[in-house]
Design a protein that fits this description.
heterodimer; A: Rossmann fold; Rossmann fold; 5-stranded parallel sheet; 4-stranded parallel sheet; 22 helices; B: Rossmann fold; 43% helix; 16% strand; globular
């Protein structure tokens, strides 16, 4: 446990993190540990975060060592896509029973690993530690080491028990497992001067595939994604990349920073959400690759691609402008960067009446202020009751949020579009912006809104008779 | 008698089972102005919450004591105390349903003792009942947690009484009943002039209504005053064997006799239920139910062609598995593969030769060759691989609309169930047309040009 504690402490003072950089020395040393409030907490645990970050490695068997709650209640709920192997969609767990709690779960874990090797024979097995075995002292790292040696299959311990902290911390602990045990263990078949890593891209509903053709066209090879549609060998050979883009609000910043330190892979923070951001990513990665030895014409080719794609996207957005201009959006999200979406919506003339900054960094805040001209509409927290009141009083025409607050909007009879990790529509790249706007348009213009807002006949002020007479 | 085959694998593959704490939490969600609170790390609550939101398509009030590694080792008294005070301040519910989890049970937190201390220290908690259900994640599963919560509520909330209200009937509803099922049961009882008290009553809280305001606790469900009045009822009707211990406890406390209905799906089961209500109320069976019974008979006549000798694989919580297995057996189908997530006494009476305690990996292995797969939505991967028609039953059903309103109890519910499942079988008749056509008559085998691309690339299928 003490090794885990040290690991957590080091992640909580992550020097690459913009939030930390903005702090005083003293505040930085204290770290980011926000104690949760019992009875008023929301959100997933560290295990959840580690699983979200790593499960998109599609050819790996993901084995959860714990009682049934951890995997049984949560599996098969994330829409990350694979272009090939489906192994990642199988839920494996040791389903610890009373006997295992009393005598320790190590033997069961070892046998479970053996069963997976025998039946599935994946290129690697990721073993997730959870609260209960961590508490009773199961030596997951020891079991993984012994199993790796015995079966000749890499068995990777992911030490992120739920009670270690938040989902965000879990993302990083998952990243640490890759840094400790996977990255640099295999060599890629070949390398090019244009090999890059995408860090924090999970291929939710196939979003990675919306941007991959852009890279392909420029001759930029995505050597590894962390971890959308990734294969084990991609991650293992990712240390040979020439540059990296860090996505998703620094969820995996530790990977980006440590790979820069260890393997000299420079990175920048970017986003695939919004036209300007997508173009910015392509520009910056092209320039960075040229510095690293890529052909000098890469930036020029990128500009040509950007000009073509932007023009195409604008043309496709044009028809929505008249329909959406002036419509008011309440944006409530953690995952997809608020400011990226904000700029995308402003591109079609929508008005942002509020946005949450829950998981955003100081830098994000500054960007939102710059884009919106004020911080008046930024919420750190918006309790469901308050959110409901805003919508009920028609302070917004549409809400964009994660699934958790979906029904707050719907019960307030307000159009709603899903934009978090559970989303069903791919929103990345030039294609994604058009998708998002099309989804908003579809939601806003559905004919049900007028119908469901109609009061019941017995609530009509003029009474029954008149209504029947005019019907 | 079915033979029970216990699981022997170390690795559960594609879990069928869900944890006891969230089973208990759902029971508490059937109470009015209630807020379930899981005593564990915040992930325990987050996973349960997402699961219920996906199934019911509703906001789910569910809180956590947010234990971390230090508080777990030191004990959770302070976290429970803070959680109760915070909830009282923010939500002021009538009932907080406290459910323990794996870590706090393994640590051995004396929650009952904690609650006593907290009550003494904080008179401001008055007006909010706190009921504790001990539910370690590593013992039993979802229906066990549900049963424990119901038992805990009877234990904590029902006073002893000598009063008897002859027209009042207790219903202890098992976790396999949908809000729609409960509504059907209530209406049937009321049609006999009786007054039902349903515990827990998901039909009040999770039936998908639109409240006039947004509240951080349930709105609708069994009210505390109803639970307190249960000791005065004429009889307790327990639906599902999982409710037997709760019915026994209630009888022991209050002397209210009970009767367990192991299912309310199927003609004979419904007849017994209607007969009981008629006896209790001393009223004739209303015309409506006579007509519905006749409709059910007709549905059985029309439907039996499609059910006869069909091989069915079912994986479900014990009481649902029991009810569905007998439904299929009643219609002439055979349950050739029966899987339960955890053991329960009722499994010995499932209408199948064997019942395996297992997961959806076992289901996929043993269901090969069946005509129909029946399980919750997690069975979709197995169904896609096996290429066998899949009919969804149980929680979670996250890829179908209207699951809260699906009714499979009573004459009418059984009638509709025959139609729904019968249609799946009927569709297969047509799908199999090709296979029985002699090769010499099949145009696709006489094609001269290149064969058409049959298998489009498999879609990710989420």
């Amino acid at each position: 446990m003490s090794a885990l504690k040290q690991r957590i402490d080091s992640l909580l003072i992550e020097p690459g993190c913009a939030t930390n950089q903005a702090k005083s020395d003293k505040a930085r040393k204290e770290g980011c540990k926000k104690p949760l409030t019992p009875g008023a907490a929301a959100g997933g645990c560290a295990f959840d975060g580690a699983k979200i970050a790593l499960q998109p490695v599609v050819d790996v068997a993901h084995l959860v060592h714990g009682p049934i709650a951890c995997e049984g209640n949560s599996w098969d709920s994330r829409h990350v896509y694979s272009s090939g192997p489906q192994t990642y969609r199988t839920g494996f767990t040791t389903d610890m029973a009373e006997f295992d709690v009393i005598y320790g779960g190590e033997k069961r874990l070892y046998r479970a690993i053996k069963e997976i090797v025998d039946k599935v024979n994946p290129p690697a097995i990721f073993v997730y530690q959870t609260c209960l075995p961590a508490m009773i002292g199961d030596d997951v790292e020891g079991v993984c080491k012994a199993a790796s040696a015995k079966f000749g299959t890499p068995v990777i311990p992911v030490n992120a028990p739920g009670f270690a902290g938040s989902k965000n911390l879990g993302n990083k602990l998952g990243g640490e497992a890759l840094l400790d045990h996977v990255v640099g263990t295999l060599e890629p078949e070949y390398t090019t001067d244009c090999d890059i890593n995408l860090i924090g891209e999970y291929n939710v509903v196939g979003e990675f595939w919306q941007v991959k053709p852009l890279f392909d066209e420029l001759g930029i090879r995505v050597l590894a994604t962390f971890c959308g549609d990734a294969r084990y060998s991609d991650i293992a050979g990712s240390h040979r990349a020439k540059a990296a883009i860090m996505l998703c609000s620094q969820a995996l910043i530790n990977i980006a920073r440590k790979m820069q330190e260890r393997y000299d892979i420079p990175f920048f923070e970017g986003s695939f959400y919004g036209i300007a951001d997508m173009s910015d990513c392509l520009r910056r990665i092209s320039r960075l690759l040229v510095e690293r030895g890529a052909p000098a014409d890469l930036p020029a080719r990128a500009e040509a691609l950007i000009a073509r794609e932007e023009a195409r996207a604008w043309a496709r957005l044009e028809k929505y402008r008249a329909r959406l201009a002036g419509r008011r959006v309440l944006l409530f999200t953690g995952g997809v960067k608020s400011w990226s979406v904000v700029s995308a919506l402003q591109e079609v003339g929508m008005e942002i009446v509020g946005t949450s900054m829950r998981k955003s960094t100081q830098g994000d805040r500054a960007k939102v202020v710059k884009i919106m001209g004020t911080d008046a509409h930024m919420f750190d927290e918006l309790p469901p009751r308050e959110m409901y009141r805003m919508l009920k009083e028609s302070k917004a025409d549409v809400m964009l949020s994660g699934g958790r607050s979906q029904f707050v909007a719907l019960k307030a009879k307000t159009p709603w579009v899903e934009i978090n990790q559970e989303r069903h529509h791919a929103l990345a790249g030039y294609e994604g912006v058009v998708n998002l706007v099309a989804e908003i348009d579809k939601a806003l213009y559905n004919p049900i809104w007028a119908q469901v807002r109609q009061p019941a006949p017995w609530e009509q002020p003029e009474g029954w008779g008149e209504r029947v007479a005019t019907a | 008698m079915a033979t029970i085959i216990p699981g022997r694998k170390a690795c559960t593959t594609n879990p069928l089972k869900m944890s006891a704490p969230i089973g208990a939490a759902l029971a508490f969600l059937g109470m009015d102005r209630a807020l379930p609170l899981l005593h564990g790390s915040q992930g325990c609550t987050a996973f349960g919450l997402v699961l219920f939101v996906r199934h019911f398509r509703e906001t789910i009030p569910l809180q956590t004591t947010a234990m971390n590694e230090v508080t777990t080792i030191l004990g959770g008294l302070e976290n429970i105390e803070q959680a109760l005070l915070n909830i009282k301040k923010r939500a002021n519910p009538a009932l907080i349903g406290l459910c323990s989890t794996g870590i706090t049970e393994a640590k051995g937190d004396d929650v009952a003792g904690f609650l006593k201390l907290i009550r003494e220290k904080h008179p401001e908690l008055a007006g909010t009942e706190v009921v504790f259900a001990p539910t370690p994640d590593f013992v039993g599963g979802f229906s066990d947690g549900w049963a424990k919560a119901v038992g805990a509520m009877i234990d904590a909330l029902v006073p002893t009484t000598k009063v008897r209200t002859p027209w009042q009937v207790n219903i202890l509803a098992g976790c396999h009943l949908t809000p729609g099922d409960i509504e059907e049961i209530r209406e049937t009882i009321e049609a006999f002039g009786l007054t039902p008290i349903v515990l827990p009553d998901l039909s009040g809280s999770l039936d998908g209504h639109i409240p006039e305001t947004f509240l951080p606790h349930t709105l609708g469900g069994t009210r505390l005053e109803d639970v307190r009045a249960m000791g005065a009822s004429a009889i307790t009707i327990a639906i599902g064997e999982q409710m037997r211990p709760a019915a026994e406890l209630l009888e022991k406390k209050t002397g209210v006799p009970f009767r367990v209905f192991d299912r309310l799906t199927g003609l004979a089961a419904c007849d017994a239920f209607i007969a009981l209500l008629s006896d209790l109320s001393e009223q004739d069976v209303p015309l409506k139910y006579r007509r519905q019974r006749s409709q059910l008979q007709d549905a059985m006549l029309d439907g039996h062609f499609y059910f006869g000798e069909q091989k069915v694989a079912i994986a479900a919580e014990p009481d649902l598995l029991f009810a569905l297995s007998h439904f299929f057996a009643d219609m002439g189908a055979t349950v050739t593969c029966a899987i339960a997530p955890q053991d329960a006494p009722v499994l010995a009476r499932v209408a199948a030769e064997t019942v395996r305690i297992g997961d959806l990996g076992d289901f996929e292995e043993h269901a090969a060759g069946c005509d129909l797969l029946v399980t919750h939505s997690h069975g979709r991967q197995a169904a896609a691989r096996l290429g066998i028609p899949f009919w969804r039953a149980g929680l979670p059903t996250f890829d179908r609309l209207g699951v809260a309103h699906k009714v499979t109890v009573g004459y009418r519910g059984t009638r509709d169930l025959i139609f729904e499942v019968g249609n799946v079988f009927m569709e297969q008749l047509h799908a199999h047309e090709q296979h029985v056509t002699p090769a010499s008559l099949r145009p696709d085998l006489h094609r001269t040009g290149p064969a058409p691309a049959v298998d489009a690339p498999a879609r990710a299928g989420h």
